[in-house]
Design goal:
Order of helices and strands: HHHHHHHHHEEH
CATH topology of the largest domain: Arc Repressor Mutant, subunit A
Number of strands: 2
């Protein structure tokens, strides 16, 4: 992956072919890789397939790039032009923000050379209060439970934007049905 693309224009990645071509090109920037991974995900590539194509060593790294690839084209372009300031960690933090706050925060990163932790603190300052968030998560858990037919619990870590999603199942047949609802066939991975 090219750390400094010498201000060349960002690659256009419009379809699966463009994404695969970009990944084969060892001189792509991190935002180009993020866009390619997001495109592959949108056409059905799993994290494992994408990891094998890209040579990334962990599924979670693929997930991070996938999230970052969902940023607006203007933010991806800013990232591409400022690789020495904006990292994948910054892009992940930006992706967690509402779209209307992403560009302003990205420009803050560039102007103030904020590190990822500082951006995450900005994120938590702009988030709803914890009681509003807990009420929202409770409603979301109830809606998900009704939709998939299994009890769902959602919890967030204190002072964090991460958390845990728990789905209860009752017996292996029930587990297989739940996996299929999630688009995962356990028999393919045994």
């Amino acid at each position: 992956m090219n750390e400094y693309p010498d201000q060349r224009p960002m690659l256009m990645i419009d379809d699966e072919y463009d994404a695969l071509s970009a990944i084969k090109n060892k001189e792509i920037s991190a935002p180009e890789l993020a866009l390619a991974i997001a495109k592959l995900s949108s056409v059905g590539y799993s994290n494992r397939q994408t990891r094998e194509l890209t040579g990334l060593t962990h599924d979670y790294t693929v997930s991070h790039y996938k999230k970052a690839g969902g940023l607006s084209p203007s933010i991806l372009e800013l990232w591409h032009k400022n690789l020495h300031v904006i990292t994948l960690g910054h892009a992940r933090a930006l992706a967690r923000l509402p779209e209307n706050k992403q560009e302003h925060t990205c420009r803050e990163i560039l102007a103030r050379h904020l590190n990822v932790r500082q951006v995450e603190k900005l994120n938590s300052a702009t988030q709803s209060s914890s009681s509003e968030m807990n009420a929202h998560l409770k409603r979301l858990a109830e809606t998900m439970s009704e939709y998939i037919g299994h009890p769902v619990k959602i919890s967030m870590k204190p002072d964090s934007t991460s958390g845990k999603l728990t789905v209860d199942w009752f017996g292996f047949d029930d587990f297989d049905t739940l996996c299929n609802q999630l688009g995962f066939n356990p028999a393919d991975h045994v």
